[in-house]
Design brief:
alpha/beta, six-stranded mixed β-sheet, two-stranded parallel sheet, 3 helices, globular
Amino acid sequence: MKDNTLKIDWPHVSIYLTAMIKRIKPYPEAVIGILNGGAYVASSVAGHFGIPLDFMKIKSYTDMSKGKNHIWAVPVMNIKDKNIVLVDDIYDTGETLEIAVNHLNNPGTDNIPRHIIKAVLTTKNTNSNIPHLVWGTAVDKDSWVEFPWEGSAY
């Protein structure tokens, strides 16, 4: 564990999730969660709104080291012309979400959403110039964040 590790417990997850959900506009019609970290958060968002849920897998971290992003799995549900929420656990550099947005907006498919809202439980970047990003709470940019659904966190 790094010295600058921030462990987020279940009660705080609930508080941050509530704050994030309140910021999601326009009303979503589907949720795409980014596995693995965004699975719980995406499931909670879909359950709150009562809308369909699918997942995509983009992996960039190995243990605590940043690597190159790779898309491992893509959503299969119909999102054409829908307002969707793209959900992950944390926004760090934004690279993972941008890869997902670029994939979902790929003009080579016939399944492009109308609007993508990016929603994360925590962010390390509160720059207001990041379009369509909502979050539950901001954390220090130098923190290593551990969530309760991560095996080593609790």
